[in-house]
Amino acid sequence: MKTIAVIRTGGIGDVILSFVSLSVIRHNYPGASILWVGREPTLDLVRNAFPEVIPVNIRSGNTYRQNLTLIRNSTAQIDLVIDLQRSARSILLCALLRMKFNFRYVSWNKYSLPRSLFVLQAKLRGRKNNISVYAKKLLSRRQAMAQCTLAGLNKLNISADWSIDYFPNIDTGEKKEMRIAVCLGSLFPLKELPLERVIEFIRYLVDAYGTYSIVLLGSEDKHADGERIIQKLDSALHIENICGKTTLWRAASILQSCKFSLANDSALAHLSESVGTPVLMFFGPTHECFGYSPYLEKSRPFSLALGCRPCHKDGNRTCSFGDDKCRKDVNVSVLFPHINYLLHD
Asked: What structural domains does the chain harbor?
Protein backbone atom coordinates (compact mmCIF):
# COMPACT_ATOMS: atom_id res chain seq x y z
CA MET A 1 0.00 0.00 0.00
CA LYS A 2 1.39 3.36 -1.03
CA THR A 3 1.06 6.63 0.87
CA ILE A 4 -0.07 9.81 -0.88
CA ALA A 5 0.23 13.27 0.68
CA VAL A 6 -1.98 16.11 -0.60
CA ILE A 7 -0.89 19.64 0.31
CA ARG A 8 -3.56 22.36 0.33
CA THR A 9 -3.29 25.22 2.81
CA GLY A 10 -5.11 28.03 0.99
CA GLY A 11 -8.46 29.68 1.56
CA ILE A 12 -11.50 27.70 2.66
CA GLY A 13 -13.18 27.80 -0.75
CA ASP A 14 -10.03 26.67 -2.54
CA VAL A 15 -9.61 23.79 -0.10
CA ILE A 16 -13.22 22.65 -0.56
CA LEU A 17 -12.74 22.61 -4.33
CA SER A 18 -9.54 20.58 -3.91
CA PHE A 19 -11.44 17.71 -2.26
CA VAL A 20 -11.83 16.48 -5.82
CA SER A 21 -8.29 15.11 -5.42
CA LEU A 22 -9.51 12.76 -2.70
CA SER A 23 -12.30 11.54 -4.96
CA VAL A 24 -9.84 10.77 -7.75
CA ILE A 25 -7.47 8.90 -5.42
CA ARG A 26 -10.17 6.89 -3.66
CA HIS A 27 -11.76 5.80 -6.94
CA ASN A 28 -8.59 4.91 -8.82
CA TYR A 29 -6.51 3.65 -5.88
CA PRO A 30 -8.85 2.71 -3.01
CA GLY A 31 -6.04 1.04 -1.05
CA ALA A 32 -3.95 4.20 -0.72
CA SER A 33 -3.10 5.72 2.63
CA ILE A 34 -3.81 9.46 2.33
CA LEU A 35 -2.37 12.39 4.27
CA TRP A 36 -4.02 15.79 4.00
CA VAL A 37 -1.52 18.51 4.83
CA GLY A 38 -3.48 21.66 5.61
CA ARG A 39 -4.65 24.08 8.27
CA GLU A 40 -7.64 24.78 10.44
CA PRO A 41 -10.54 25.38 10.07
CA THR A 42 -10.70 23.31 6.87
CA LEU A 43 -9.18 20.32 8.65
CA ASP A 44 -12.46 20.19 10.58
CA LEU A 45 -14.16 19.34 7.29
CA VAL A 46 -11.52 16.75 6.40
CA ARG A 47 -11.88 14.96 9.74
CA ASN A 48 -15.66 14.77 9.50
CA ALA A 49 -16.13 14.19 5.78
CA PHE A 50 -13.14 11.91 5.14
CA PRO A 51 -12.44 9.98 8.37
CA GLU A 52 -10.08 7.60 6.57
CA VAL A 53 -7.75 10.48 5.66
CA ILE A 54 -4.96 11.47 8.06
CA PRO A 55 -5.08 15.24 8.69
CA VAL A 56 -1.80 17.06 9.37
CA ASN A 57 -2.12 20.59 10.72
CA ILE A 58 0.87 22.69 9.63
CA ARG A 59 0.29 25.97 11.41
CA SER A 60 1.33 29.19 9.72
CA GLY A 61 3.23 30.24 12.85
CA ASN A 62 5.32 27.05 12.91
CA THR A 63 8.89 26.84 11.74
CA TYR A 64 9.71 24.54 8.82
CA ARG A 65 11.35 22.19 11.32
CA GLN A 66 8.17 21.97 13.38
CA ASN A 67 5.99 21.31 10.32
CA LEU A 68 8.43 18.70 9.04
CA THR A 69 8.26 16.94 12.40
CA LEU A 70 4.44 16.93 12.27
CA ILE A 71 4.45 15.29 8.84
CA ARG A 72 7.18 12.80 9.68
CA ASN A 73 5.37 11.73 12.84
CA SER A 74 2.20 11.09 10.83
CA THR A 75 3.58 8.48 8.45
CA ALA A 76 6.42 6.06 7.93
CA GLN A 77 6.58 6.71 4.19
CA ILE A 78 5.42 9.01 1.42
CA ASP A 79 5.34 7.71 -2.15
CA LEU A 80 3.62 10.65 -3.86
CA VAL A 81 3.11 14.31 -3.01
CA ILE A 82 0.31 16.18 -4.76
CA ASP A 83 1.04 19.84 -4.09
CA LEU A 84 -2.16 21.77 -4.89
CA GLN A 85 -0.78 24.90 -3.27
CA ARG A 86 2.53 25.28 -5.13
CA SER A 87 3.67 28.27 -3.15
CA ALA A 88 7.23 29.11 -2.16
CA ARG A 89 6.51 27.62 1.29
CA SER A 90 5.04 24.36 -0.01
CA ILE A 91 7.86 23.89 -2.54
CA LEU A 92 10.49 24.39 0.15
CA LEU A 93 8.61 22.07 2.50
CA CYS A 94 8.60 19.34 -0.15
CA ALA A 95 12.32 19.85 -0.80
CA LEU A 96 13.02 19.33 2.91
CA LEU A 97 10.74 16.29 3.03
CA ARG A 98 12.83 14.66 0.31
CA MET A 99 15.67 14.42 2.80
CA LYS A 100 13.67 11.65 4.53
CA PHE A 101 11.19 10.39 1.93
CA ASN A 102 11.85 9.39 -1.67
CA PHE A 103 8.61 10.38 -3.38
CA ARG A 104 7.17 11.38 -6.74
CA TYR A 105 5.89 14.93 -7.03
CA VAL A 106 3.21 16.80 -8.99
CA SER A 107 1.92 20.32 -8.43
CA TRP A 108 -0.76 22.80 -9.48
CA ASN A 109 -1.50 26.45 -8.78
CA LYS A 110 -4.63 28.43 -9.63
CA TYR A 111 -2.74 31.40 -11.08
CA SER A 112 -2.26 30.98 -14.80
CA LEU A 113 -1.36 32.99 -17.90
CA PRO A 114 -4.85 32.60 -19.50
CA ARG A 115 -6.41 33.98 -16.32
CA SER A 116 -4.07 36.96 -16.31
CA LEU A 117 -4.74 37.64 -20.00
CA PHE A 118 -8.48 37.46 -19.34
CA VAL A 119 -8.11 40.31 -16.81
CA LEU A 120 -5.76 42.33 -19.02
CA GLN A 121 -8.17 42.20 -21.97
CA ALA A 122 -11.00 43.48 -19.76
CA LYS A 123 -8.86 46.36 -18.51
CA LEU A 124 -7.95 47.37 -22.07
CA ARG A 125 -11.54 47.02 -23.25
CA GLY A 126 -13.22 49.00 -20.47
CA ARG A 127 -16.93 49.64 -20.83
CA LYS A 128 -17.13 50.54 -24.48
CA ASN A 129 -19.11 47.35 -24.92
CA ASN A 130 -21.19 46.10 -22.02
CA ILE A 131 -21.73 42.59 -23.34
CA SER A 132 -19.53 39.80 -22.00
CA VAL A 133 -19.16 38.05 -25.34
CA TYR A 134 -15.42 38.15 -24.82
CA ALA A 135 -15.45 35.56 -22.05
CA LYS A 136 -13.48 32.42 -22.76
CA LYS A 137 -14.35 29.78 -20.23
CA LEU A 138 -11.24 28.47 -18.50
CA LEU A 139 -10.84 24.94 -17.25
CA SER A 140 -12.70 24.56 -13.96
CA ARG A 141 -10.54 24.43 -10.83
CA ARG A 142 -11.92 21.00 -9.99
CA GLN A 143 -11.03 19.65 -13.41
CA ALA A 144 -7.54 21.12 -13.23
CA MET A 145 -6.87 19.61 -9.80
CA ALA A 146 -8.32 16.29 -10.94
CA GLN A 147 -5.90 16.30 -13.89
CA CYS A 148 -2.99 17.03 -11.56
CA THR A 149 -4.01 14.14 -9.29
CA LEU A 150 -4.32 11.77 -12.24
CA ALA A 151 -0.84 12.78 -13.39
CA GLY A 152 0.47 11.91 -9.93
CA LEU A 153 -1.20 8.50 -9.92
CA ASN A 154 0.28 7.80 -13.34
CA LYS A 155 3.73 8.45 -11.87
CA LEU A 156 3.03 5.59 -9.47
CA ASN A 157 2.06 3.42 -12.46
CA ILE A 158 -1.55 3.36 -11.29
CA SER A 159 -4.03 3.22 -14.13
CA ALA A 160 -6.42 6.17 -13.69
CA ASP A 161 -9.41 7.12 -15.80
CA TRP A 162 -11.88 9.95 -16.36
CA SER A 163 -15.01 7.82 -16.28
CA ILE A 164 -16.16 8.96 -12.81
CA ASP A 165 -17.76 11.97 -11.23
CA TYR A 166 -14.81 13.81 -9.75
CA PHE A 167 -16.99 16.24 -7.81
CA PRO A 168 -17.75 14.41 -4.55
CA ASN A 169 -20.65 15.40 -2.33
CA ILE A 170 -20.11 15.53 1.42
CA ASP A 171 -22.87 13.82 3.39
CA THR A 172 -23.46 15.33 6.82
CA GLY A 173 -26.54 13.21 7.44
CA GLU A 174 -28.97 16.16 7.37
CA LYS A 175 -32.34 15.88 5.64
CA LYS A 176 -33.92 18.60 3.50
CA GLU A 177 -36.22 21.02 5.33
CA MET A 178 -38.40 23.99 4.42
CA ARG A 179 -35.39 26.24 4.69
CA ILE A 180 -33.30 28.50 2.44
CA ALA A 181 -29.77 29.71 3.19
CA VAL A 182 -28.55 33.24 2.50
CA CYS A 183 -24.76 33.34 2.79
CA LEU A 184 -23.17 36.69 3.62
CA GLY A 185 -19.60 37.76 3.05
CA SER A 186 -16.65 36.84 0.90
CA LEU A 187 -12.87 36.96 1.19
CA PHE A 188 -12.98 40.52 -0.15
CA PRO A 189 -15.93 42.90 0.50
CA LEU A 190 -15.83 44.16 -3.09
CA LYS A 191 -17.07 40.71 -4.22
CA GLU A 192 -20.22 40.89 -2.10
CA LEU A 193 -23.78 41.46 -3.23
CA PRO A 194 -24.95 44.74 -1.60
CA LEU A 195 -27.23 44.34 1.41
CA GLU A 196 -30.02 46.19 -0.43
CA ARG A 197 -30.03 43.45 -3.07
CA VAL A 198 -29.94 40.73 -0.41
CA ILE A 199 -32.94 42.32 1.30
CA GLU A 200 -34.78 42.55 -2.03
CA PHE A 201 -34.06 38.85 -2.58
CA ILE A 202 -35.36 37.87 0.87
CA ARG A 203 -38.49 40.03 0.49
CA TYR A 204 -39.35 38.12 -2.66
CA LEU A 205 -38.86 34.77 -0.88
CA VAL A 206 -41.09 35.84 2.00
CA ASP A 207 -43.84 37.21 -0.24
CA ALA A 208 -43.85 34.24 -2.60
CA TYR A 209 -42.87 31.39 -0.27
CA GLY A 210 -43.73 32.46 3.25
CA THR A 211 -43.76 28.89 4.57
CA TYR A 212 -39.97 28.64 4.17
CA SER A 213 -37.62 29.78 6.91
CA ILE A 214 -34.41 31.63 6.09
CA VAL A 215 -31.05 31.16 7.76
CA LEU A 216 -28.25 33.72 7.46
CA LEU A 217 -24.77 32.17 7.34
CA GLY A 218 -21.37 33.85 7.39
CA SER A 219 -18.36 34.70 9.49
CA GLU A 220 -18.53 36.53 12.82
CA ASP A 221 -17.84 39.91 11.21
CA LYS A 222 -21.05 39.48 9.15
CA HIS A 223 -23.32 39.04 12.17
CA ALA A 224 -24.01 42.80 12.30
CA ASP A 225 -25.01 42.74 8.61
CA GLY A 226 -27.38 39.91 9.41
CA GLU A 227 -28.99 41.99 12.14
CA ARG A 228 -29.36 44.94 9.74
CA ILE A 229 -31.15 42.69 7.28
CA ILE A 230 -33.56 41.46 9.94
CA GLN A 231 -34.25 45.02 11.13
CA LYS A 232 -35.15 46.07 7.58
CA LEU A 233 -37.67 43.26 7.31
CA ASP A 234 -40.78 42.24 9.23
CA SER A 235 -39.70 40.93 12.65
CA ALA A 236 -42.35 38.23 12.40
CA LEU A 237 -40.52 36.53 9.57
CA HIS A 238 -38.72 33.26 10.16
CA ILE A 239 -35.16 34.55 9.74
CA GLU A 240 -32.34 33.20 11.87
CA ASN A 241 -28.97 34.96 11.99
CA ILE A 242 -26.23 32.48 12.90
CA CYS A 243 -23.29 34.29 11.30
CA GLY A 244 -20.17 33.49 13.32
CA LYS A 245 -22.00 30.95 15.51
CA THR A 246 -21.18 27.71 13.72
CA THR A 247 -18.20 25.54 12.96
CA LEU A 248 -17.45 24.84 9.32
CA TRP A 249 -18.86 21.34 9.66
CA ARG A 250 -22.05 22.63 11.28
CA ALA A 251 -22.41 25.16 8.45
CA ALA A 252 -22.12 22.27 6.00
CA SER A 253 -24.91 20.43 7.84
CA ILE A 254 -27.17 23.47 7.77
CA LEU A 255 -26.54 24.00 4.06
CA GLN A 256 -27.35 20.36 3.33
CA SER A 257 -30.72 20.81 5.06
CA CYS A 258 -31.64 23.77 2.78
CA LYS A 259 -33.46 23.62 -0.53
CA PHE A 260 -30.95 26.05 -2.06
CA SER A 261 -28.63 28.89 -1.07
CA LEU A 262 -27.78 32.40 -2.21
CA ALA A 263 -24.05 33.18 -1.95
CA ASN A 264 -21.29 35.41 -3.21
CA ASP A 265 -18.22 34.08 -5.00
CA SER A 266 -17.07 32.62 -1.67
CA ALA A 267 -16.26 29.54 0.38
CA LEU A 268 -19.88 29.07 1.45
CA ALA A 269 -20.97 28.85 -2.18
CA HIS A 270 -18.55 25.98 -2.75
CA LEU A 271 -19.50 24.39 0.58
CA SER A 272 -23.16 24.48 -0.46
CA GLU A 273 -22.46 22.55 -3.64
CA SER A 274 -20.17 20.12 -1.83
CA VAL A 275 -23.16 18.95 0.25
CA GLY A 276 -25.40 18.76 -2.82
CA THR A 277 -27.36 21.98 -2.26
CA PRO A 278 -27.82 24.14 -5.38
CA VAL A 279 -26.42 27.66 -5.12
CA LEU A 280 -27.34 30.95 -6.76
CA MET A 281 -23.84 32.40 -6.95
CA PHE A 282 -23.10 36.08 -7.44
CA PHE A 283 -20.08 37.25 -9.43
CA GLY A 284 -19.20 40.94 -9.32
CA PRO A 285 -15.68 42.11 -10.24
CA THR A 286 -14.54 38.53 -10.81
CA HIS A 287 -16.01 36.31 -13.53
CA GLU A 288 -17.87 33.00 -13.65
CA CYS A 289 -15.59 31.87 -16.49
CA PHE A 290 -12.54 31.93 -14.22
CA GLY A 291 -13.24 28.30 -13.30
CA TYR A 292 -15.13 28.82 -10.04
CA SER A 293 -18.62 28.78 -11.49
CA PRO A 294 -21.09 26.39 -9.78
CA TYR A 295 -21.26 22.95 -11.33
CA LEU A 296 -24.46 21.35 -10.00
CA GLU A 297 -27.18 21.09 -12.64
CA LYS A 298 -29.65 23.15 -10.57
CA SER A 299 -27.15 25.84 -9.54
CA ARG A 300 -26.92 29.16 -11.35
CA PRO A 301 -24.31 31.92 -11.52
CA PHE A 302 -25.57 35.48 -11.97
CA SER A 303 -23.83 38.75 -12.73
CA LEU A 304 -24.07 42.00 -14.67
CA ALA A 305 -22.83 41.71 -18.27
CA LEU A 306 -20.08 44.35 -18.35
CA GLY A 307 -17.18 44.40 -20.77
CA CYS A 308 -14.85 45.57 -17.97
CA ARG A 309 -15.27 42.33 -16.04
CA PRO A 310 -13.14 40.74 -14.70
CA CYS A 311 -11.22 43.77 -13.44
CA HIS A 312 -8.95 41.69 -11.19
CA LYS A 313 -8.07 38.05 -10.59
CA ASP A 314 -9.21 38.06 -6.96
CA GLY A 315 -11.68 40.93 -6.81
CA ASN A 316 -9.75 42.82 -4.14
CA ARG A 317 -9.13 46.08 -6.04
CA THR A 318 -11.34 49.15 -6.05
CA CYS A 319 -13.42 49.83 -9.16
CA SER A 320 -11.41 51.79 -11.73
CA PHE A 321 -14.63 53.62 -12.72
CA GLY A 322 -15.45 54.44 -9.10
CA ASP A 323 -19.07 53.27 -9.18
CA ASP A 324 -19.01 49.49 -8.41
CA LYS A 325 -21.56 49.07 -11.18
CA CYS A 326 -21.04 45.29 -11.40
CA ARG A 327 -22.28 44.98 -7.80
CA LYS A 328 -24.79 47.76 -7.34
CA ASP A 329 -26.67 47.42 -10.63
CA VAL A 330 -27.12 43.66 -10.62
CA ASN A 331 -30.76 42.58 -10.87
CA VAL A 332 -31.71 39.76 -8.47
CA SER A 333 -35.15 39.43 -10.10
CA VAL A 334 -33.51 37.39 -12.88
CA LEU A 335 -33.27 34.61 -10.29
CA PHE A 336 -36.96 34.49 -9.44
CA PRO A 337 -38.11 32.10 -12.22
CA HIS A 338 -35.35 29.66 -11.29
CA ILE A 339 -36.25 29.87 -7.60
CA ASN A 340 -39.78 28.82 -8.53
CA TYR A 341 -38.31 25.84 -10.39
CA LEU A 342 -36.09 24.87 -7.43
CA LEU A 343 -38.93 24.95 -4.92
CA HIS A 344 -41.44 23.11 -7.10
CA ASP A 345 -39.21 20.53 -8.75
From this structure: 3-112+142-155 (3.40.50.2000), 179-344 (3.40.50.2000)
